[in-house]
Every structure is written in structure tokens, then in C-alpha cells.
Amino acid sequence: APGTMPVALRVNGRALSLELEPRVTLLDALREHAGLTGSKKGCDHGQCGACTVHVDGRRVLSCLTLAVMAQGKAITTIEGLAATADGDLHPMQRAFIAHDGFQCGYCTPGQIMSAAAMLREPWGPADDDVREAMSGNLCRCGAYPGILAAVQEARRSSAAAGQ
Ligand code: FES
Ligand code: FES
């Protein structure tokens, strides 16, 4: 189509060939062109974290990222997070379930993607470290106590597992 260009993305280990306008965000590319609606559009302005995905293992706000700029990188969405060989849930997903880290669930994919990336970042062990690390992920339902408990449990178990 006029005004579009071929964009090759690698999402959850799968190669996607899309035709996109250059201004299309990674979030819209995932949701509207790749059928991956797990990443949520809360604010579309970088203020809520609902759209968080991983790009080359780092957490990124997909509403602030152009799809064309993500070419050649490994993109992981909530749909791909659990894609382990045994088909099991990611430890962070299990922890969110165990600790009631959600109510309506709208913010949850972004919370979990952010928290999973946080496991690889150099934060201290305190609750305040988690609060600061997760401060870009808003929850209208106020599920923060459960989110904090979930993240802390997942951090402890991943540290114990030497990950
Ligand atoms: Fe991206 Fe809110 S939708 S930060
Ligand atoms: Fe409803 Fe967080 S669980 S917005």
C-alpha cells in the first residue's frame, strides 16, 4: 500500500513480515498487525506501563517505540514469556497468581513483563527498590501490595535458582 514499507520483526522467536507506515508504533504493530493483543494500550503516551515488552531482553514501552526501530531485535511479549520447553508459566506469572497481584488484570501483562525484566537489573533487595523499579507501571485497581509480594517472591526464587 502507498506509504507503507516492509518491516521484519522477530516476536517470541517467530519471524513476522509486516507492511507498515513508518510512524506505526511497536504496540500497534503487535496488537493490530500481528494479532498479539496481550500488550495493552493504556495511555499510549509512556505513562502507564501497560504496553511493556522486552526488546533484546530489556523492558521497553512499546507505545513509545517505532516498529521500524525494533527490526533486527528480539521482541518478547507476554504471549511469549511462558514459552519454555515445558510449556510452564514463567515464575513471575506464577507469583502474580499466588499473591493476587491483579484485580481487573488490565495492567497485569505490563506489570509482569516489567517485573520479569527487573530480575535481570541491578536493584537492591528492599521493598522500596521494587516500588521504584516498578514505578512506571500503574495499576488503577491499586493491586500494589500483591504486586510487590509477587515480585519479591519471584526475585527470591530466581536468586535461589541461580538465575
Ligand atoms: Fe504505553 Fe501507557 S500504553 S505507557
Ligand atoms: Fe486493574 Fe491493575 S489490576 S489496573
UniProtKB/TrEMBL annotation:
Residues 5-81 form the 2Fe-2S ferredoxin-type domain. Transmembrane segments: none annotated. This is [2Fe-2S]-binding domain-containing protein.
